[in-house]
Specification:
Elements: H1 3-11, E1 37-43, E2 49-54, E3 60-64, E4 68-72, E5 78-83, E6 89-90, E7 102-107, H2 111-114, E8 116-123, E9 131-139, E10 146-156, E11 176-178, E12 184-187, E13 206-210, E14 230-233, E15 238-243, E16 250-254, E17 261-265, E18 317-319, E19 325-330, E20 343-347, E21 352-358, E22 364-369, E23 377-382, E24 388-392, E25 397-402
This protein binds calcium ion (CA).
Calcium ion binds next to strand 17.
Length: 403
């Protein structure tokens, strides 16, 4: 990417980086060409596909937000495994509301031997309020059923009742991924609840890190008095989490309100700096200042309030004109040519993908990928075949081959 091209994008109104942080523009290596992308439909006619997880032989588990968990076998047949009535294992407590339902899916690192996988779903097994849960399942050898349901995390904050800022089921987070450390990372949302992100006793507005039984992982460095499952806090509604292929560092991408989509490299025990509760004397509808200011006088509530939290984790990439940044994955392998080890992030409202180059100090810059059709891309997963798979809100899962 030439600096001239970056400039032209900015001139087109696409502001790539904030001037509020010490971010640097970088230029991708000129001696390595970018890949050409060949896109085909992998699965179509789905209902809000939300996430995918692949076995080593390219069997694909996938979720549909209002239906449940299914699997696409290598011969192309699809089996409905877990969720609504008629699925192989019905979940009577499962429901779909707002942005919630059957969200993330992840395979256990030892899936090949233990057949274990996990989903993030809304459940009415808890009442007043209902909750989001992470549920563990075991898949049969022939992929025709799942069994042995165990709810390993049962108390993830859920927006039980709509308010002036949105419907019930809003801001649930919902991505789950195993890190290279073997622990499960879970992204949660702030539920339009002002106190949640900075409240260390509740699980909304956090990144959680647990083992396969839902027990807090060692090394979370949760501040004293906090729930030990909390890895980082002070987040809004994170839907993207991925791990640097070389350093293993954890990166998240999260929506801003009407400003400041952020990509952030996480530090254990760190504060993301989002605090939408009203300061003393400030009145915000439903005690949530996420779309206005939480201060007596000031600008919009910042996504990272360094004035209030000087030690907060600074984002390494900010999209000032927020467009719903979320799903994210690093691209690994030489087939990606000059994009190897870049961070791919979906920006849903503008229906774009950003390719970000991450520097040694976690600074980043990037450009808009323009060779794929416009669509709201809800999940980005690089599969064991080295190709990229993209779930779209319009009901497809694409296969994208770099050439
Ligand atoms: Ca932040």
């Amino acid at each position: 990417m030439k600096r001239k091209s970056v400039l032209s994008l900015v001139l087109c109104g696409l502001i790539l980086v904030s001037t509020g942080y010490a971010l640097q523009s970088r230029v991708l290596p000129a001696d390595s060409p970018p890949p050409t992308l060949v896109r085909t439909d992998f699965v179509t006619e789905l209902n809000n596909p939300w996430d995918m997880a692949f076995t080593s032989d390219m069997t694909m588990f996938f979720t549909e937000r209002c239906r449940g968990l299914s699997v696409r076998k290598t011969d192309g047949t699809i089996v409905e495994l877990f969720g609504m009535t008629g699925y192989a294992l019905e979940a009577p407590d499962f429901f779909c509301e707002g942005q919630s339902g059957m969200n993330g899916v992840a395979l256990d690192p030892a899936f090949a031997t233990n057949r274990t996988l996990y989903v993030y779903m809304s459940s009415n097994l808890s009442v007043n309020p209902r909750t989001n849960r992470v549920v563990r399942l075991v898949a049969s050898e022939d992929f025709t059923s799942v069994s042995d349901r165990v709810d390993i995390v049962t108390d993830i904050s859920y927006k039980d009742v709509g308010n002036s800022w949105g419907n019930a089921g809003s801001h649930s987070g919902g991505r789950i991924r195993f890190g290279p450390d073997g622990f499960l990372y879970i992204t949660t949302g702030d539920n339009h609840n002002g106190i949640l992100p900075q409240d260390l006793t509740q699980l909304g507005g956090k990144i959680l890190r647990v083992d396969g039984n839902g027990v807090a992982a060692p090394g979370n460095n949760t501040p004293a008095g906090g729930d030990p499952r909390i890895y980082t806090y002070g987040h809004r509604n994170t839907q993207g989490i991925t791990f640097h292929p070389v350093t293993g560092r954890v990166f998240i991408a999260e929506h801003g309100p009407d400003h400041s989509d952020e990509v952030t490299a996480l530090t254990p025990g760190g504060n993301g700096g989002w605090d939408p509760k009203p300061d003393h004397g400030v009145i915000c509808s439903d005690e949530y200042c996420g779309y206005i200011s939480n201060k007596i006088s000031g600008f919009l509530t910042p996504m990272t309030d360094l004035q209030k939290f000087p030690d907060a984790m600074k984002p390494m990439f900010v999209l000032v004109d927020a467009q719903g940044m979320g799903p994210a994955t690093f691209l690994t392998g030489s087939q990606w040519k000059s994009w190897e080890n870049t961070l791919l992030v979906s920006v849903m409202a503008s229906m774009q993908l950003y390719v970000l180059q991450v520097g040694a100090k976690d600074e980043a810059s990037g450009f808009v990928l323009s060779s794929l059709p416009l669509d709201r891309m809800r999940s980005l997963v690089q599969a064991p075949d080295g190709n990229l798979y993209i779930a779209t809100d319009t009901g497809s899962i694409w296969k994208v081959v770099p050439q």
